[in-house]
Amino acid sequence: MHPLQSWRSTFTSALERTLGVISSTPVSTAGVFCMTPPPHRAVSAFGFSAPSGGAFTPPEAAHSVSGQFCVLSGFPICHTQIITLQLRLLFQVCACSNPACRVLPRDLSFSFLVEAFLIPAPYYGAITQHVYLYGNVRLVCVYLDSEVTGLETRPFQLTVEKLEMALEGANSEGVKVKGLILINPQNPLGDVYSPGELQEYLKFAKRHELHVMVDEVYMLSVFEESVGYHSVLSLERLPDPQRTHVMWATSKDFGMSGLRFGTLYTENQDVATAVSSLCRYHGLSGLVQYQMAQLLRDRDWINQVYLPENHARLKAAHTYVSEELRALGIPFVSRGAGFFIWVDLRKYLPAATFEEEMLLWRRFLDNKVLLSLGQAFECKEPGWFRLVFSDKTHRLRLGMQRVRRVLEGKSQVAEDAPSC
């Protein structure tokens, strides 16, 4: 036997045995955080106050002398696990819900070419890399559109009817849908799902035995108080707790994307065990775990200093940009969450094509404005762009001046060029 084949066989057998073991004991080398919320769910998995999640109230954090393993010890440690990892691993595990799929194929990657997740579109494009390019799991888009059909509807609104249609279409093509991905608050729409909407989506998933992955990475960046954000874990009862998994990270709410710190909350022991086994290759250093424990335990600073100031700055920046857009007569979608506004520039396209959308994007780029075009988010309507507003006032002012120039068809003025 070739040495590589021998190594592959040994590795596969070892991983199969690991994935087959159900244990309530966390693996310290994988960097696992464990905690169990009280039965009444008064506190969400990440320690945010329920039901609206306005404050950050993590349990006390403790760490070992070596700093290699941290435990969030506010509640009795049990089977529910929060695992620090690169979040793409969850999609691989949930795509394979039966024990037979635990056997790895020869290329040492999960290959489920006819299995898929539903995802409302437009959506954050990097998820394609996490799910399809990395895990060979297909995405089935639940296409949303800007049309408002009644007084109770809004642009790009997700409904159970649209989920059912997408699922039926996938089944007719022989694609086995295994899960649903929800982003709340949504990126790029900035949409926030109400508790009633969340319950409807979760009941749909339960009817069809689908896993639901809820990405709440912007949950602390809801700056409009009237919005009333609710984490899925603040719901009084989850329709299918064993198939509901929640993710959060510090990359957005704390502006710490470089640390690659993320969390997974799941009550499914098989999922937790499988993902923790893979954490050996996606874990965090002890130093990062220690730093995060120190940050998250400082509740007073987070609740009384950081979050109020961050929300105030986001709201001020959003107000300025939205007022500038209104002055230009540009429609947009924004509900007071996240760092971006979904801007409708369809009237500036000579033809409603993605080729014209790309040309407009290029004109913005030539004038030193970097927007994200709608096609990158799988938006089916050409002409929508994502505009990020989370910046300082003087840069926003300059950026909006350049946006105005592009839309008015004017060339770049001399003051933008480097001085001699």
Helix-strand layout with pairing:
Layout: H1 3-20, E1 32-34, E2 61-63, E3 70-72, E4 81-83, H2 88-95, E5 112-121, H3 126-135, E6 137-143, H4 160-172, E7 176-183, H5 195-207, E8 211-215, E9 244-249, H6 250-253, E10 262-266, H7 269-278, H8 286-296, H9 299-327, E11 332-333, E12 340-344, H10 354-366, E13 372-373, E14 384-388, H11 393-407
Parallel strand pairs: 5-6, 5-7, 7-8, 8-9
Antiparallel strand pairs: 1-4, 2-3, 4-10, 9-10, 11-12, 12-14, 13-14
Helix pairs in contact: 1-7, 2-3, 2-7, 9-11
CATH homologous superfamily heading of the largest domain:
Type I PLP-dependent aspartate aminotransferase-like (Major domain)
Helix content: 25-40%
Mean pLDDT: 77
Report the count of strand segments.
14
Largest beta sheet: strand ordering: 1-4-10-9-8-7-5-6
Give the low-confidence spans. Answer: 2-53, 57-87, 97-113, 413-420
CATH top level of the largest domain is Alpha Beta
- Give the overall silhouette: globular
Write down the domain tally. Answer: 2
Element string (H = helix, E = strand): HEEEEHEHEHEHEEHEHHHEEHEEH
Largest sheet: 8 strands, mixed
What's the N-to-C terminus distance? 68 Å
CATH fold call of the largest domain: Aspartate Aminotransferase, domain 2
- Structural class comes to alpha/beta
Strand composition percent: 15-25%
**Number of discrete helical segments:** 11
Compute the CA-based radius of gyration: 23 Å
